[in-house]
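Per your request, structure below.
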């Protein structure tokens, strides 16, 4: 089983469009959307969800008000200031602010009345869906919730399990933007990383950062320049930078208003955009990948 991960140094570079096209061409790959904070692959592939499950990201403390004697120990020792004494029914009790609780469990250990329990905290959901091009595993983290790296790792694990079940030979991963923990989780186990970059000064800097990250894990990388004709000078700099890193550039996608207009109509317009110049170039990058996978 091979795994292709498509990433970019930041969002909005066309990474998801590239991944969606790869899914259309590969047809029977398992698709993993690892952008769990702001997923948008579903807008291109119209998945039909057949299984959904809560994602337990961490624990949180809950005080039993009937047992609490307001001794103040938990409030004193919670380093996140997540506990305060609140008046009610003529006496004070400890109450946990669940948004501040980090789930460290210190309060449970110090409570002399055994009044505090740790409970699972659900911070998102993950899904198994069917698309016209194969099974898709995706997820959505609640706004502001932490542990996106763990959720990404889980999405990838489920995708690999689905690939085994379906006897699929390819897992296609839409990576999260940036270079943080979720991206590291998305890169783990990749056979090749496709870096989609735009020819802007910040795009060049983003490319260097993500290339450094992937290079640090010794993963083979390939460059795709999106909207390459919008700035030929920076495109040349991107190619030069890739050459220095011995990274092949497998495609230069032109800026294509025809594609943007077709995609704005939604997934049902897929047939319309397959003939767009940009889409043809993206398809060629998939062919090029087969030689270096
Ligand atoms: S679990 Fe830790 S962070 Fe949460 S309330 Fe208890 S001591 Fe504070
Ligand atoms: S340590 Fe236990 S008894 Fe004391 S205030 Fe906290 S919850 Fe109440």
């Amino acid at each position: 089983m091979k795994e292709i991960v498509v990433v970019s140094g930041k969002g909005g570079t066309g990474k998801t469009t590239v991944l969606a096209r790869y899914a259309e061409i590969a047809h029977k790959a398992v698709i993993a959307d690892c952008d769990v904070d702001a997923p948008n692959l579903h807008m291109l592939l119209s998945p039909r969800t057949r299984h959904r499950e809560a994602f337990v990201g961490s624990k949180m403390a809950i005080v039993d008000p009937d047992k609490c004697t307001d001794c103040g120990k938990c409030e004193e020792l919670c380093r996140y200031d997540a506990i305060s004494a609140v008046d009610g029914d003529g006496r004070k009790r400890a109450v946990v602010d669940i948004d501040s609780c980090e789930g460290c469990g210190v309060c449970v250990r110090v409570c002399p009345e055994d009044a505090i329990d740790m409970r699972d905290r659900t911070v998102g959901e993950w899904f198994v869906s069917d698309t016209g091009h194969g099974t898709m595993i995706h997820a959505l983290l609640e706004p502001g919730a932490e542990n996106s790296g763990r959720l990404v790792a889980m999405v990838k694990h489920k995708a690999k399990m689905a690939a085994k079940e379906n006897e699929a030979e390819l897992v296609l991963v839409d990576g999260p933007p940036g270079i943080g923990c979720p991206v590291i989780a998305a890169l783990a186990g990749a056979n090749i990383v496709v870096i989609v970059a735009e020819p802007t000064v910040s795009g060049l800097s983003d490319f260097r950062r993500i290339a450094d990250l992937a290079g640090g894990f010794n993963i083979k990388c390939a460059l795709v320049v999106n909207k390459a004709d919008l700035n030929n000078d920076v495109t040349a700099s991107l190619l030069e930078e890739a050459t220095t890193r011995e990274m092949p550039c497998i495609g230069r996608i032109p800026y294509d208003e025809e594609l943007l207009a077709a995609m704005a109509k939604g997934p049902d317009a897929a047939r319309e955009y397959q003939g767009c110049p940009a889409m043809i170039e993206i398809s060629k990058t998939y062919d090029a990948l087969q030689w270096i996978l």
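The chain has a mean pLDDT of 93.

Regards,
D.
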